[in-house]
């Protein structure tokens, strides 16, 4: 019978300002939590995922993603700086995307899980060059001594001779896609549009092995596309590099917590399901039970209160059902 109530059992707390913090309270707290503490928690989750063998430290995949900051794209006429002094103007493949930051993220290829999970990232102004940004990101992660990794993959934005030697000197095989038609590098086109430097292939690997491995790189696109679509991170609601970094850290913490929770529940099929632990399902279930309670003549019918949005929805639904019954009765439907 408790299902007929249709509300979260914590509703009394969540709607009481004495217990539940407001947006201002949360903003106040987040501005005072040291970023290093949040990053430590994120890396602890990475270590736990490695211990559970959700993440196997073998192959890293690089990818960068731009996010707009909370300011316009014009410089202040007096200071000749953007309203967010930490941000930079980002251009990619000839496209002008605006003022903001780039999150350079290292993902771990998780094999049969068919998903890449974040293991580290760094945030840079939008005008930072991709090549040094990727090297700095790797250096910061390598200093943490989390796992022993064997290979790093990246797109053409990370490719240069300096980067290839940088990773090789650290015992990491660099599988970086090269720009086409490089005259000074021994690049080969393994398939149409896919060029690689043959001097840096892992020993004993064939061209087919290289293509099969690089075919796994698009797995990071699933994680990256979820940031603007599922987490609504096309634009920040704050300014400053530290807040941009903190904002993305919280997202990656949620990704790892979801994966670890799914694994511990024995539901590895939910490891990559973004909506499995969201409130969307609960909201739909609650709405369903309210309707069932009304239709069943539940004795406490009058005590079930609807918010204005729910009331408008069910009023519209009842009107539509009445019109549908009328059409059926008249044989028009």
UniProtKB/TrEMBL annotation:
Biological source species: Candidatus Lokiarchaeum ossiferum
Protein name (record): Transposase IS4-like domain-containing protein
Organism domain of life: Archaea
């Amino acid at each position: 019978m408790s299902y007929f109530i249709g509300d979260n059992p914590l509703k009394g707390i969540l709607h009481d300002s004495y217990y539940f913090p407001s947006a201002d309270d949360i903003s106040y707290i987040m501005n005072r939590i040291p970023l290093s503490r949040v990053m430590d928690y994120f890396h602890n989750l990475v270590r736990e995922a490695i211990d559970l063998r959700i993440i196997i430290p073998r192959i890293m995949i690089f990818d960068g993603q731009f996010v707009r900051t909370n300011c316009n794209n014009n410089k202040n006429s007096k200071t000749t700086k953007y309203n967010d002094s930490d941000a930079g103007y980002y251009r990619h493949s000839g496209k002008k995307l605006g003022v903001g930051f780039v999150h350079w993220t290292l993902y771990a290829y998780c094999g049969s899980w068919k998903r890449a999970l974040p293991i580290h990232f760094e945030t840079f102004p939008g005008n930072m060059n991709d090549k040094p940004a990727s090297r700095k990101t790797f250096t910061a992660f390598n200093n943490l001594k989390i796992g022993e990794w064997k290979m790093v993959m990246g797109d053409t934005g990370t490719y240069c001779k300096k980067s290839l030697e940088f990773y090789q000197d650290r015992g990491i095989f660099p599988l970086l896609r090269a720009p086409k038609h490089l005259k000074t590098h021994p690049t080969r086109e393994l398939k149409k549009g896919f060029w690689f430097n043959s001097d840096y292939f892992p020993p004993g690997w064939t061209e087919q092995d290289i293509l099969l491995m690089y075919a796994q790189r698009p797995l990071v696109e699933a994680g990256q596309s979820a940031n603007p679509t599922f987490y609504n991170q096309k634009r920040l609601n704050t300014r400053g590099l530290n807040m941009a970094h903190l904002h993305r850290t919280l997202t990656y913490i949620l990704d790892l917590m979801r994966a670890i929770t799914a694994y511990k529940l024995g539901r590895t099929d939910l490891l990559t399901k973004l909506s499995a632990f969201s409130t969307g399902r609960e909201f739909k279930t609650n709405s369903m039970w309210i309707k069932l309670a009304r239709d069943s003549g539940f004795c406490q019918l009058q005590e079930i209160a609807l918010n204005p949005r729910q009331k408008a929805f069910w009023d519209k639904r009842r009107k539509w059902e009445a019109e549908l019954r009328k059409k059926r009765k008249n044989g028009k439907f």
